[in-house]
Amino acid sequence: MIFKGLSQQHSIIITIAHYVLIEAVRNRLFALMLIGVAGILGLGQFTGGLAITETAAVQASVLAFVVRIAAVFLVSLYVISGVVREFNEKSIEMILALPVPRYVYYAGKLSGFLMLALVVAVAAALPLCLYAGPVPVLIWSISLFCELAITTSACLFFLFTLGQVTAALAAVMAFYFLARSMAGMQLVSHSVILEDGSITHELMKSALDLVAVFLPGLDGFTRTDWLVYGGGLQELPAVVVQTILYVGLLAAAALFDLYRRNF
Questions:
Q1: Less CB within 10 Å around the terminal CB: N or C of the chain?
Q2: Strand locations in 123-164 (E)
Q3: What are the tens digits of pLDDT across the range 123-136?
Q4: Residue 120 contacts residue 68 (beta carbons within 8 Å)
């Protein structure tokens, strides 16, 4: 009976994840991705025309930055708007009215969105194959998927907590850019040049160090120098470990908010 129940729940998770992908097709998300890839290729050719030397390196650097930001924003907006639409249409209430535990619903949605993030990461890496080697592009795309996985988990957490598209998207973007820039902010705060011994400076430095403990080190994810100079294989295990850790933590926090909500 236990194994039968687990098999049934596993089937429900797969079904929910499958419908997430079907919804993405119906909303023409993949068509939008193809248009974006074509636009990025055009941007790459334009950037190559402006570069004087090291054309391929300049093209790879510019496209990697644009592709990463676009992928994060696209996935975040789709995840948040899709779940909010379920809230507004009361479809989540219909699902939870069935004998389906809330964690099964969450696992299905997260699995579907992670598969969608994988498709986005692969599509984002395709234009870069023209300007960098296959191995650096593969490592870069795996890291991008890990970055999108953390962002997706953060979207679901902030959405279940805040319940509004604007607030959730703003919180996710703040989380993302803060995690991306925290290492640089710490480096500046610990600079000997700025060290004045004041209480305000020490409090700011301590506050940044405290916040950094709870944030993923996204500055080490999806680095452009991997495409230009190679490398990244040694850093990839740390990226994967951080992804598993933060996806798990964000999932636990999102489930806590999901269970305390009244539908």
A1: N
A2: none
A3: 888 888 887 888 88
A4: no
